[in-house]
Amino acid sequence: QVQLVESGGGSVQSGGSLRLSCAVFGYTYSNYCMGWFRQAPGKEREGVAGLFTTDAAYTYYADSVKGRFTISQDNAKNTLYLQMNNLKPEDTAMYYCAADTTLTPDSCMWYISDPSTSSRYQYTYWGQGTQVTVSS
């Protein structure tokens, strides 16, 4: 059973930085789909950034975070990261790490970028979430 454990959330002022981590347990293969989603109170869950672990060409960022957030992975540590710089109050949300071991690279990118509700929950495995709060 794959388990995802997030860490690194917290409270910062506008313009600050945080780095989220997502440790993957229970999956020993190297190729899988991973992403970061977020959900603010009263809003739909949205895809923030994603990647397919064995092909760097498959990387996604939501328009709202391009140039500020960077998704990366450490294969040796089986860990996914989200470096968040120049944070804004509108970035305040619960951030979730998600993974799937069966999606193709194209599907991996589709389901994190597609705004429809059904797509947002296609990833099989989810972490418990970590809160990010940005004050103005």
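Next protein, fold it too.
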Amino acid sequence: QVQVVESGGGLVQAGGSLRLSCAASGFTFSSYAMSWFRQAPGKEREFVATISWTNPGTYYADSVKGRFTISRDNAKNTVYLQMNSLKPEDTAVYYCVARVLTRDYWGQGTQVTVSS
């Protein structure tokens, strides 16, 4: 079955960096887009970034553009989110999402906390 597992979250000071990883299994990873979403306390879940299966094209939320970079390694079935210049408002649980055919598969999330 399709599984996505996030890792790499933690506590970092404002201005610092973190790299999140998402290991995927159960489907042909190289053939599907992968995305990152996040949910801050008391807020709705929001889109962060997506990477297509071909080219690959990337797209970012305005709030992270220029600071975050999404990438993928198809040989390792893994998608990454490099987060630089982190801000306290980036504090959230970060989720990896695989859109396989018509269904979205979500991981359990990884907590990112940015202290001021």
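About the second fold: The chain has no helices and eleven strands.
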